[in-house]
Amino acid sequence: MTKGSRTPTTGMKRSPITLRPMKMAVQWGKVILQPCNTTLQRRKIVLQPRKTVRQPVKVNGRRICMRCNFCDANAQYRDPHTRRYICLAHSHLQVIARDNGNGTEPLAVRPAASADRDQIAELALYFWGETEVECFGREYDVRHLPAFVACDDGQVIGLASYVVEGDALNLVMLNVLPGYQGRGAGQTLIAAVEQAARACGLSRIVVATSNDDLPALYLYQRCDFRLTNLAAGRLAEHHGGEEPGFAGISVRDEIRLEKQL
Prior knowledge:
- This protein has helices at 117-128, 185-199, 214-222, 234-239; strands spanning 22-27, 30-35, 56-59, 62-66, 77-78, 85-86, 108-111, 132-135, 138-141, 147-152, 155-165, 168-176, 204-210, 226-231, 243-244, 250-251, 254-260.
- It is 16% helix and 33% strand.
């Protein structure tokens, strides 16, 4: 029978056609049809987070963090309620009541030593994909900047890199691994940087972040930083176009903040 022809209605005995019900088993990334003995029913399929055990990300054989529970991207945050690791694309903003701490011990913060440079580079590669960070129109290699590090059991899990320029201390990079967020490491690192700025006789601390980074904007303003300038389109120009950021917000602009000492 050629394509497009119709089945004759006379002169041919038809064989009965039996429709066998099938059931649909959904696995992550594929749909499998399996025979069943029940009648077909219309079902709504809802994708859920992966339930498999996530394997830790390792750099140079050292465990530093986890993958996102919804995809294979590096996790940037950890949901304090569900304990799931999430990347930028699978994050969203929600107003919740603030608790008074989770009862965990605060993380130790100290000045970075030369022996920490490899771990500092690992953090930069994990969060940014490179060790050079661009802000205020300049690029800085965090491997060669002074820094404070937050540690847990001897491992560097957070970083605040900075450089002194004129009367200001420029906070170049501030990041804490998702599994250690919520323990005050970010605020403690900022306090250490502020103490270093005062010791150098500086009058202010400056920092730049992206327009999508609402968690960073929240943290800096809670630490008494104030918005001073908006470099519209600066990051889109630097990256050669807009990129997806936190909660689906496009990364476009550089927001600059300052804290007077």
